[in-house]
Amino acid sequence: MEMQTMQTSPSTQIVNVGGFDIGGPQFTVIAGPCSIESYDQFLETAKGVKASGAHILRGGIWKMRTSSKAFQGLGSSSFDFIKAVCKETNMTLISEVTDARQIEEIYDMVSCFQVGSRNMHNYSLLKELGMQKKPVMLKRGFAALIEEWVKAAEYITAGGNPNVILCERGIRTFETATRNTLDINAVAFAKRNTHLPVIVDPSHAVGIRALVPDLAYAAAAVGADGIIVEVHPRPAEALSDGMQALTLNDFKVMMNKLERILTAVDKPLHKELVYAN
Amino acid sequence: MEMQTMQTSPSTQIVNVGGFDIGGPQFTVIAGPCSIESYDQFLETAKGVKASGAHILRGGIWKMRTSSKAFQGLGSSSFDFIKAVCKETNMTLISEVTDARQIEEIYDMVSCFQVGSRNMHNYSLLKELGMQKKPVMLKRGFAALIEEWVKAAEYITAGGNPNVILCERGIRTFETATRNTLDINAVAFAKRNTHLPVIVDPSHAVGIRALVPDLAYAAAAVGADGIIVEVHPRPAEALSDGMQALTLNDFKVMMNKLERILTAVDKPLHKELVYAN
Amino acid sequence: MEMQTMQTSPSTQIVNVGGFDIGGPQFTVIAGPCSIESYDQFLETAKGVKASGAHILRGGIWKMRTSSKAFQGLGSSSFDFIKAVCKETNMTLISEVTDARQIEEIYDMVSCFQVGSRNMHNYSLLKELGMQKKPVMLKRGFAALIEEWVKAAEYITAGGNPNVILCERGIRTFETATRNTLDINAVAFAKRNTHLPVIVDPSHAVGIRALVPDLAYAAAAVGADGIIVEVHPRPAEALSDGMQALTLNDFKVMMNKLERILTAVDKPLHKELVYAN
Amino acid sequence: MEMQTMQTSPSTQIVNVGGFDIGGPQFTVIAGPCSIESYDQFLETAKGVKASGAHILRGGIWKMRTSSKAFQGLGSSSFDFIKAVCKETNMTLISEVTDARQIEEIYDMVSCFQVGSRNMHNYSLLKELGMQKKPVMLKRGFAALIEEWVKAAEYITAGGNPNVILCERGIRTFETATRNTLDINAVAFAKRNTHLPVIVDPSHAVGIRALVPDLAYAAAAVGADGIIVEVHPRPAEALSDGMQALTLNDFKVMMNKLERILTAVDKPLHKELVYAN
């Protein structure tokens, strides 16, 4: 890898999402369902994760699915109740756009746009996001070199939007016992060789509920700036990715141990905000 | 892989592109530059490849580049001369769309749309192409399972467009001596387990000019329905992918040997059309 | 890859195995069962493949199996009948050694030693083979770089044994629809950048009987010096690798088409020898 | 992966190496040079790592090198001084055997045999180790499935030796920015789905000195039973793997932070033994 092509200073860009600085001395936890399925499901999840210390909500509105026959997300029919849940819980939402035309549609609903792994190379989409005033969380392509990931981020920053958060979510390897392979090396590498914040998605990275907390701990210890985790009140009923969603109780237990590790590495959890919206 | 998810009949869908049936008893050769750089470059290439037996032109108008600073293609400024070259040589063009908004722009200029490897998972784009009346050549994602490739094709066919051609262009593996790894197994597998035509892109699959003809021969022998090859009159001056472009003479030499192999496997080259346009 | 570490002349080392030159103007076919299971099974296979034009026999005496509970090969109890079959059919045998201590045991029974994919990095074994007077067929490790494969060959040649044949047998990638991924690029690369003969094992490379002939044709067209193929009179009864073994009739059909392709590329099959032993 | 082929109880086998229980409530640190190069180098390293809290020494006597021309280790000429260093520091040694014939040679010098990544599939060697009375640390093959790794361990345990420690040392993927990719998922998976202790080798897993401590922290947090780390008094002068060796001071700094994380996860470092030998 040509190191000169990457910025070699340690992480210095701090990206504020919904009132929380990502990339600074505190650790950020983003949690919520894979897909937003209903007002009740989203509200119950939001309240539950907030009670255990989550800072920001995640939730899919339009889903990228391998099969055209699989659930594709609720789309615009969910807009009203999503806003209601955010207001009720005083939290903000990070959500994925899968097409440049969706940016405007959800602009007022999100505190941060997410680019999914399968769109990391969608340079048209990245260029549009480079012209926005809101932060972007850029998931690594599941087969992208670290260098390609950093260069994809440059498609956004070159357009005038410096607020990019890198998210490692597992790469595709020969191993099939786990859904993907969390590239923990890449987290350490990106933290020490780019100026951008780096977070980890342990849910997609391993795809097995029982192992998600272990990988969240590893992310905290290796130096990540935060995690984004899938949580569902009743994973067995989830419309997508139920195998890897934590229950609300799993999440609570995980947060306790995570907090101890974060204290040991001097990167404590953010405290709750009074006014997030 | 769940074989029941794939159509198990041998290739039966025949896709006509510019007057040439792809997927039938003849073999199709698509050739041209990586990027369309100028009227002179494109015309010289088109005349040269046609003289050696190529059937359809290829050439990039908008390029997907890892770096935002690299040459991004001529875009709409090239439309007029592209049409002129096609008319002058009586050939049609297959070209990549990287954004749904480009489909309409080049609709009248191409006989077939190309979806690039980095957009195979761009389901928004695939859905748009499913609503068109022109064929689509779907390159396999460089880290896509065969099953995901077939399911991506279903995003197009489900929309009402049955005319999809699969194109294997190399996958990303641990090997770095060659640019990608041509998955020749996948060509054989897709030919025998799907109903769609399958062609091979030896240029991207290996990335080394001297090896491109060898892989074209392998594609012909394994049972592919055609190849798509990069050719440039002066590869050293190419604005993209010069390392893997054949010269016009390389191409001519390759076509001679290819023809002998195709005769041996009873899948001869298409003859020239009188009226392609 | 540092090209200067590899010999850059085209293939010039010709390795004679049982009377057949491998690496010269003719193509060599090695065929036989995965495991040698009985006198009857081995004799029937040997006669069958010879009748269709095979030149050399293959067959495992000690098997490398992932599970310690799987069939491990007949070992020394098969020595007498193996010699009898070779004599009866006037063919020679290539067989795998999995431990340096086996070299002496089968020295008089084989015309060539095989190093399996899982032992490519077993440098102790390679050093011992470097001191022998018989040729060695070195399978590529299933996750070895081409450079590592060539350097493994140097462990043998550095010991004084120049008679090494490289064998590409598929690499491990993310794809699971086929057993391995035949790295056809590596065959072209090794032929043009090393001085050693290169053969292909389509059986292990794809692991699906119906696709084995297609890949043998690709090997012939890409420029390989030969193939090594698994054949079993009744694959359903095979003690190992039955899924990928050709029947005797499959093999016969394959040889007919292979011969036509080899003629087209000016690398015809060897003719039968009068005295192989 | 067929989960039923693997033992599904959590880690219960405790393996005692030189007086330290691996797989129990304490964490074990194994440290030392890649290659044992001289009495002075080995003694200085041993004293240094012990002073910072390491429990067991590592050091290569015979090295597996890709090139036959690279340094192959001191071999038997180092035996006397290795014993002297162990005695002087009251530590024991874990060292790699690359050939079954070496087991007897170093039997009295080591408290644990190491099987390297390139020998994980060397079943002849594993069978021999299954007949020994000393523990075996089995490194995962750099392209081995978790299932193959567990089955390789069964080659040892089936022979009557239950004392196997699994060691994850990075797998080969498409990423080249780091030497290998630490499969942290596999550590979590193996801890929760096998009965064997699992340790991590962060040095080989990432291959970049500055990132080794970060990955050691991740290993501690994910639940590993220990780490094995390369340390050299003057890495720039190392005869092998200098790029990834920690200095004695790096090691000291790492141990301080590691201790804090281990306290947070309730798996403290072993205390020093009075009599190790």
UniProtKB/TrEMBL annotation, chains A, B, C, D:
A GO molecular-function descriptor: 3-deoxy-7-phosphoheptulonate synthase activity
Record's keyword annotation contains Cell division: no
E.C. number(s) listed in UniProt: 2.5.1.54
DAHP synthetase I/KDSA domain sequence ranges: 24-259
Keywords, ordered alphabetically: Transferase
Pfam families with a match to the protein in the record: DAHP_synth_1
Keyword Glycoprotein found: no
InterPro entries from the UniProt entry: Aldolase_TIM (IPR013785), Class-I_DAHP_synthase (IPR052899), DAHP1/KDSA (IPR006218), DAHP_syn_2 (IPR006268)
EC main group: transferase
PANTHER family listed in its UniProt record: PHOSPHO-2-DEHYDRO-3-DEOXYHEPTONATE ALDOLASE
Protein name stated in the entry: 3-deoxy-7-phosphoheptulonate synthase
Organism annotation: Bdellovibrio reynosensis
Gene label: aroF
